[in-house]
Amino acid sequence: MARLWLHLCICLQIPGFCTNLLLSQTPEHILAQTNNKTEMLCDLKKEHAGVYWYRWSQERQNFEFLIFFNPLGKATYGTNISQDKFSGTSSRISYSLHISHLHPSDDGTYYCSISQSSQLFLGSGTQLRVVDVLPLPLKTTLSPPSKKPMRCVTRSKAASKRGACSPLVWVPLAMGVLVLLLSLVPTAHHLYRLRRRLWLRLHRQ
Known about the structure:
It is built from three helices and eleven strands, in the order αβββββββββββαα. With 205 residues, the chain is α+β, with helices and mostly antiparallel strands. The chain is rod-shaped, with a radius of gyration of 48 Å.
């Protein structure tokens, strides 16, 4: 047992010394509110005899054994560890630690670990911080879309934009010319009759 604790102290002094591919721990960081609860996970690469959960307190500078789970779900608690506060689940290769009634004294880094060949192999650790009030997320202010002034287009401008060859332009013009020509026909006929009468009178004299 003394060798286990000696090896554990070396792990704490040299981060990453004891972490390996035998287990993975998530998440890395948790920010939780007082009186709430949280959860951290530990996945093994292969089936093992069970998982230990420890807490390292930077403030108190101690490493505390919390709970041990075997694959059948049986839990063994550490000294003075509340069963109402700490619980968890276990399966063949997946384990979880649940912490309820959170308090700032729960701050620390939590490690899941397995024992093999008189050594403790640690997970990467989950840093837990408990606060009374969670910080509000930053609000991103979106600039309002620029309002472009509306341009009123009159019919004359619209017609000019359509072009001189537009049917809306030349059809009314053609109709006006045709009406003008038709109105000149009676006038031309009347002038022709007057001219002929004048010619006949001149020749009779």
